[in-house]
Amino acid sequence: MVKRAVCIISGGMDSALSAMIAKTEGYEIIAVHFNYGQRTEQKELDSFRKIAKYLKVIESYEIDLDFFKQIGASALTDSSIEVPTGGIEAGVPITYVPFRNGIFISIATAIAEKHQAQSLFIGVVEEDSSGYPDCRDAYINSMETSINLGTKDETKLKIKMPLVHMKKEQIVQKSLELKVPLEDTWSCYKEESQACGVCDSCRLRLKGFKNAGVVDSISYV
């Protein structure tokens, strides 16, 4: 039986590794990317395309969701809200996009059902993330229950989150071990030409590389 997995790939390091893990587990990969009005939309799309090509995916979807920009309420989608650069703070940060992963998973589920995929891979990280409530494993597990109740009886989809309890340095190490093209990934919330190095996402990435004893291959301001 052919094993197929839908992989949500943002263009970042975490989702690239998650998709590579799916590949090593013997799945044919259906890659899904979302353009949702984020500040680094074009750079993330470019990274997604490079990663998808590297993984030799069997199908690729680029989904446009313009309503996130209409809603705003996040520094990633509302240009009037500054991306914080003072370091990671406690609580849910202003870069949280309301219910983003829930919406992404719902759309990816429809694609999975079309392709009769058995698994859906998402690169959420709980322990060393930026405090997003939609990155918690309890939430993702509850989504798995709900989507299987709301799809055909023969659709039995497993949501896999292989990185959820990993630290960033472990993600870097595992990425190097599996030969993930980290030079093609993008994490910065603010910039598209050179990573800013000071937003929460850049800080987490740089910390991960430092703790792993490796130099990051992307360019920083």
Numbering strands along the chain, what is their spatial order in the largest sheet? 3-2-1-4-5
In CATH terms, the superfamily is HUPs
Share of β-strand residues: 5-15%
Question: How many discrete structural domains?
Answer: 1
State the total count of DSSP E strands.
5
Q: Which class best fits the helix and strand makeup?
A: alpha/beta
Task: Report on the architecture of this protein.
The protein has helices spanning 13-24, 41-55, 67-71, 100-115, 137-149, 168-177, 200-212, and strands at residues 4-8, 28-35, 59-64, 119-121, 158-160. It has 221 residues and is α/β, with parallel strands linked by helices. It has a five-stranded parallel beta sheet, with helices on both faces. β4, α5 (137-149) and β5 form a beta-alpha-beta unit. α6 packs across α7 (200-212). The protein is globular, with a radius of gyration of 16 Å.
Sequence-ordered SSE layout with sheet pairings:
Elements: E1 4-8, H1 13-24, E2 28-35, H2 41-55, E3 59-64, H3 67-71, H4 100-115, E4 119-121, H5 137-149, E5 158-160, H6 168-177, H7 200-212
Parallel strand pairs: 1-2, 1-4, 2-3, 4-5
Helix pairs in contact: 1-6, 6-7
